[in-house]
Amino acid sequence: MVVSVPRPLLEEIVANRRSKTIMLVVLFTLVVVLVGAVYQNNVNKKNALLEAKYKYEAIKGPPMPLSVWI
After folding, report:
1. Which position among 4, 13, 43, 55 has the lowest Cβ density within 10 Å, counted as fewest Cβ atoms?
2. Residue 59: its H or E element
3. Distance (Å, rounded) from C-alpha 37 to C-alpha 33?
4. Can you give the pLDDT of all 70 residues of the chain as single tens digits?
């Protein structure tokens, strides 16, 4: 059974569907960008901490072996 839908109503349904699809694509893109930014920020923090650790160890010198303390 085929239901006949008036033309203006059909165009409105298609327009609503199109706008919802565009909205979903935009929201998905924003979520991906936000997650990527948070991930990149965490990587940058980790790299900064490692760099500070290596600089500190370079200034302080290598750690003393345990046999020196015994």
Report:
1. 4
2. helix 7-60
3. 6
4. 666 767 788 788 888 888 899 999 999 999 999 999 999 999 999 999 999 988 888 888 766 776 666 5
